[in-house]
# Entry
Amino acid sequence: MNLTKHHKLMVLYISESNSFWKRVRKFETGRHVDVIDEKDVIEMTGLCRETIKNWRLGKPMRPSKGIEVFRYTLEHLKVCIERARDFGRANEIEYAALQAIISACVQAFDTGHFDLYGIALTLGISVSACQRILDSAMYDARPLLRSVYLPPAPKEARARDYAQIEAEKYVGVYLLWAKVDDVWMQCPMSIRYLQEVRDGRFLRCKMNVPVLGQADTEGAAPYLQYDGFAGASDKTLFCTFERRQHGPIDLFHVVTDVPDNLGIEAITLGGTYLTSIAKGKVLIRRTSKEMSDPRHTYYRDLMTNAAKLLMSSIEVEDVEARWNQHATKSGQDHDGAQRPGM
# Structure
């Protein structure tokens, strides 16, 4: 989420962490205020809850609306000072100080020439608090890293329709092979559907990983379940999984190339993986593009029964050959490392 300086200023201004509002409340009531909530901000800015939410999520904001908000707060202060005078407890010095703060915000908004941290300090927000407020707004809109989201839609396309079309290129049932030391693990994996998070969209994934050291003579093994997400650029697919079961946290990261023939069913992708204890070669092959049967029979059968270690030399040679074929296209050496200059 890329915000303009004007937008960032307004996100700071309407934040409940903006200590300026505590000063206004104390000026208004004569009592110290420990906590400011959204209702207080609404009352002192004239904004509705939906507008505050949209601005924090990075939705478009008219600069003139920002000026209106500052003016509304000034009017609120005028009402406060008149009431205070009626009760004989007016604090003219604090009134002038609060007016000066709002005037500084208006001038910054009008000219566009201002230091954001300087304005934050004027509002009583420290630099570190300013950074936290802006980061909170950014991650509220997109809670994950930018690279995990599907590419933004072209200007002429509707964002959700475009994302759905992009998602359909990847959705399906896969087999993932990861080499741990000298052993290839076979992990059934699915890229399931398009998931929306505020103003971002990514692919929801699932994977079952066989437990090393517990395989029978044919390689079948109990498995651990991993949930995850995938995102893609024009040339790269990123997948991140986290183990579902209770116990130590384990993350499983996968990076592969995206082939030119992405639309066909049996695509194969070569790349590398990284976990908390291992790293190395990875190969992914889509076995079914559509989970069209209403009971997902094929999907459930694969996810339940396909997790294993490769014990047959024929299976191992086949996976090694496929990895060499596909990973070398993306600048990978045969040990899973990137070739110099790539």
